[in-house]
Amino acid sequence: MECLASTSSTSMFVFVTGLLCLFNVHTVLSGELTFELPDNERMCFFESIKEGLKSTLEFQVITGGSYDVDMELSAPSGQILYKDTKKQYDTFTWTADQTGVYKFCFSNEFSTFSHKVVYFDFQVGDKPPLTAEIDSHATALTLMEQTSVNTHAQLNTIADYQTHFKLRESSGRAFAEFLNERVFFWSICETVAVIVVGIGQIIVLHSFFTDKRPANTIQS
């Protein structure tokens, strides 16, 4: 994935670009990133894809607002391959019909105050085989090789499940913290209301037992 991003905020551009460059050291054919998308902002990423390669883009809003974001994917020619508004999560798979730089953008321009935390996983082409020798094997695989291939595939599946479970855990934690904050402030309001009502009742009861007699005047 190329280390490019477009946004109106220079600091956010540098931050996200640095993360992309750092992550690019570990993977070539795929990339995943979790980033913050401020309100009234649009952030784009770019990927160079060769013709005929199958690609998959998966995204999910982890926290923020109503957990929704606008997403658009366009080809090098400018053709819109995917576009949807206010999506919480989605997966889109396509086969590139031309070689060039594909652009996908996340937009939070419809929100005026809530920031979003967005996760995306972008995969280009099929996952590489366990070893090049197994991939170009001319004869049937041995039992050990077949077991290794099956184990490798199962580990990839487990890694995908772990990623989704981590996203659910992060989303659930954010919602729990938000709910806890609301309950905390509601408890404070109730406490203040109880104190005010108690003081008011004391004042009213005190007025019932106060003897208000008119002052006697002395006539000369």
TrEMBL record:
InterPro entries registered for this protein in UniProt: Emp24-like, GOLD_dom, GOLD_dom_sf
Signal peptide: 1-30
Protein known as: GOLD domain-containing protein
Topological relation to the membrane, as annotated: Single-pass membrane protein; Single-pass type I membrane protein
SUPFAM superfamilies for this protein: Supernatant protein factor (SPF), C-terminal domain
UniProt key word Transmembrane: yes
PROSITE patterns linked to this entry: GOLD
Transmembrane segments: 183-205
Native species: Octopus bimaculoides
Pfam families in the cross-refs: EMP24_GP25L
Stated family: Belongs to the EMP24/GP25L family.
A cellular component annotation (GO) from this entry: membrane
Keyword Transcription: no
Domain GOLD span(s) in chain numbering: 42-124
Record localization: Endomembrane system; Membrane
UniProt keyword annotations, A-Z: Membrane, Signal, Transmembrane, Transmembrane helix
Entry-linked Gene3D superfamilies: GOLD domain
Major localization class: membrane
